[in-house]
Amino acid sequence: MAMKIRLARGGSKKRPFYSIVATDSRMPRDGRFLEKLGSYNPLLPKDSEERVKMDMERVKHWLDQGAQPTDRVARFLEAAGVKDKTERANLKKGEPGKAAQDRAKKRADREAAAAEAANAPAEEAAAEAPAETSAE
């Protein structure tokens, strides 16, 4: 049986509250679980002790049994010092969507055209100015 330590959502609409549970990976997110290991309340401030509460003894037990934590739970365990910090490769981080890329390209083209237009009259004026002074 593939075991997971993951979050099960509770709370009402727009007011999330999560339970940290040990469950079979085939069960639904908020479905049947084997044991509740703690809780996570994302609405509390990040420095609050009540934000993440876990029974570390039971978490270690499930990790020894082969349970795999999800990414979010793994971060909680890293912060608690139970698990070694792992390097993550977020390949899509900072990459805007197609529409945003198109808007950025159009904006860059407009700015380049405006810069060329601003430089062109200055160059013409500079070219005409020495011609007038030499005529005197």
UniProtKB/TrEMBL annotation:
<dbReference type="InterPro" id="IPR023803">
    <property type="entry name" value="Ribosomal_bS16_dom_sf"/>
</dbReference>
<keyword id="KW-0689">Ribosomal protein</keyword>
<keyword id="KW-0687">Ribonucleoprotein</keyword>
<feature type="region of interest" description="Disordered">
    <location>
        <begin position="87"/>
        <end position="136"/>
    </location>
</feature>
<dbReference type="GO" id="GO:0005840">
    <property type="term" value="C:ribosome"/>
</dbReference>
<dbReference type="Pfam" id="PF00886">
    <property type="entry name" value="Ribosomal_S16"/>
</dbReference>
<feature type="compositionally biased region" description="Basic and acidic residues">
    <location>
        <begin position="87"/>
        <end position="113"/>
    </location>
</feature>
<dbReference type="InterPro" id="IPR000307">
    <property type="entry name" value="Ribosomal_bS16"/>
</dbReference>
<feature type="compositionally biased region" description="Low complexity">
    <location>
        <begin position="114"/>
        <end position="136"/>
    </location>
</feature>
<protein>
    <recommendedName>
        <fullName>Small ribosomal subunit protein bS16</fullName>
    </recommendedName>
</protein>
<comment type="similarity">
    <text>Belongs to the bacterial ribosomal protein bS16 family.</text>
</comment>
<keyword id="KW-0614">Plasmid</keyword>
